[in-house]
Structure formats: C-alpha cells, structure tokens
Design a protein that fits this description.
single chain, alpha/beta, Rossmann fold, 11-stranded mixed β-sheet, two-stranded antiparallel ribbon, about 40% helix
Amino acid sequence: MAKLHNSHSFLIIFILFFQLTKSDQTFNDQKTHHLQEEEEEADRITSLPGQPNVTFNQFSGYVTVNQAAGRALFYWLTETPNHPLSKPLVIWLNGGPGCSSVAYGASEEIGPFRINKGATGLHLNKFSWNNVANILFLETPAGVGFSYSNRSSDLLDTGDRRTAEDSLQFVIRWMERFPRYKHREVYIAGESYAGHYVPQLARQIIRHNSISRSHSINLKGIMVGNAVTDNYYDNLGTVTYWWSHAMISDKTYHQLINTCDFRHQKNSNECESLYSYAMDQEFGNIDQYNIYAPPCNNSDGSHSSATHQTMRLPHRPHRMVRQTGYDPCTERYAEVYYNREDVQKAFHANTTRIPYKWTACSETLNRNWNDTDVSILPIYRELMAAGLRIWVFSGDVDSVVPVTATRFALAQLKLKTKVAWYPWYVKKQVGGWTEVYEGLTFATVRGAGHEVPLFKPRAALQLLVSFLKDQPLPKS
C-alpha cells in the first residue's frame, strides 16, 4: 500500500507541476502577444498630412536588422480595405541601388496615394495595388530613404549580399511584430535594380525555410519589372534598343558593339567616351526612362536628369512622368513632402535624427556599391527548381533597362514554351504581349516606361491580379 501511496503522491505532484508550467507558458504567451500588440499599435498611422479619408489600415516604422551596427530598415504597410486577413502580402522593393520604395513604389507607382503638386497634400490612386493585396514597402538597404545605420562606414561598404541578408532579417522580425502575417501567402515584387534584390531575397527565404521549418515564411512567388538581370545581355540589349529606336547613329552603335566589354562594369576610356557622346550629342533632351514622354526641365530649359549613365549597371532612376496630368517632375514633390517634419512625425520616421536630408535616391550608396552579382540567371534556375511562381514584365519604351535587354537575358534560360506569344488586353485595348514558359511568365506592357505602374497603372494592376491568381493574362 505504501508503494501505491507514493505513486499517487508522485502523480499529484506531476499534475500540479504540469499545470503550473502550462500556466507559466500561457502567461508568457499572453505577455508576448501584448507586447506585439503594443509594437504594432505604436506603428499605426492615424493620418498623413493632407491625406484624404480612407477605409484601410496603415502602419510604418523601423525594424532593427543588426543590433551591433544599429542598422534599422524603414517600412510602410498599406493594408487592403477589403478583408485584409484573407489577402496575401506583397513586399515591394525599388532599385537604384540606393533608391527609396517610399519615393517611387509608394508615391508614384503602386501605393494608395499620389503627392499633390507643391507637396501640399495627397490624393488617391484608384489603381493602387492595395485594392487586391496588403502592400509592404521596404526601404533597403540601410542608407536608403529613412532606413539608417549607426555605423556610418556601412554606407560606404554595402552591396547585394548585405542587402539580401538584412532584408531577410527584416521579414523575420517584422512578422514577429505582425504575427497575423506569419502564415500568409507572401510575394515579393520590384523593378530595376530590384531585379537583383527580389530574387536574392527569395533565395535567402528559401534557405532560411530549409533550416527553420518552425519559423518558415510562406513565400509563393516573385515578380520583377524592367529588371537588371545579366551584365552582358543587359548592356548588349540596351545598346541594341538605342539603335533600333533611332536614338543613336549606325556609326555609334557599331563602335559601341566593337569597343565595349559588355561583360564587365568598368570599361575603357574609349568606351566611356562613346557612351558620353551618344547621350550628349545623339539622344537629345529626352527622358531615358520613357523615350516618348516629355522630360522634367529646369527653369533654364535644361533637363533635370542630365547625369551620365555609364556601363555600370544598374542605372539610377531620376525624373519620371506622372501618368495622370502628365507631370514629369513628380519626384521633386516627394523630396519636399518627405522632408516635412509633420510628415516624418506621422510616419514615425527619422526618430534618430539622421544627419542628412531624406532623398529619393542615395548617391553615397550608389557610388559605393561594392558587390553585385554579374548575373541573376543562376538564381532564377534555383527559384524555379524550388517551385516559385516567377513573372518578369517590361515596359517597352524604357531605354535604361529595356525590353530587348530582358529578352536577351531570359533567352539564356532556354525554357520550353507552354503558351505561345500572344497580345493581352486591358479594357479592349492591347496591354502588351506575353509568353508563358515552363517555370516563368514574361510580359511586355505597351507604352510603359521604366516605372510601369506610373505610366500604365490599369495594366500594371491587371498584371498583379493575374500573377496572384496564377492565371495567364487576358486574351480578350
């Protein structure tokens, strides 16, 4: 009987211990949940200066990605007004390198607002991508926009590798702050030099998922536009576009082809001189990011984006044309609006008092970009093998990362065709052309420049809808 009594006592002690442990766990879980709610609520945007009334939630703030260096990335989340809990998350990245997703993606492309002339306030973009998904704009790497590092040397020594690593840390830690997104379908999209950022971050996520299944990110696909992809084919395709669109002479075209080493970023003085000659003497006063749009001129008639492009890819986006009202100077409004103190306060931005003005693009980062993949094609192969959905689109009047460059690069993948080339439609008009391959969909957007959603917002929204549904673009 003594043995039975001892067993009974042990069972009671075990049950009590289990209940106490469970109680502690419940308490810890509740505490964590409460802290997450506090963090999220602290990031809530009540209203931005000059903002019209909206029915969706917005959040913005900082996520520290490297404690030792004090590197923190800035984000802006615009949730969809229609059942946000049932909609996927799209992370948007702009390129440069060194350009802001807030300045470009959010403010002139896919975001819910446009900045009024003079930066006095905001008006609604009816083709905003948050109509169909929750959109997370990320300013990466540190030094872009409001993102910062307390170690100033970071701005002089950055590149593809650190950008991908820090962006992964951002996604992991951001989802800790917003746990309702942890198991949501995630897509990554972007343009220009984000042709590097997007596939590189996707690869980091896949590798993270392979070693951390309990904290995996539900990444489903990527979509990139006018994307820097492969040094050789991007450069060859760019020069070919210039010639085929009558921007340069036969003589200059043949000299560029015969003189320049398209495989490398640094070229001979002779090659650089040819590029300068083409831009100064043969291009004329055009916006290279949309060759058929009027440029943003200074008061003396000179062109605002007179900065020379060199063989160094990618090329930084400068002045763009706003689709509505055809305003080529919209980037100037962003430079004014996001430097306003009341705007920064509403955004929970610049809380550490960054020792430089907010700019749409960081020249410091762009000049000091120290590592870059020569080609992204091997990453595409890796992502296709992992089963990710991949869409590549191209505005066909961009001469900076033109459609010819993208087609030359993608041809090297030698993919089998599933659906042959056909015109796709928006509102009974040809929106562009597309071909569906095994593992990748390619689409052009007719009449769109470098920033496709800026020039063709309705077509760009259709791209997103078809991409998210994993359906070919409409044939009629």
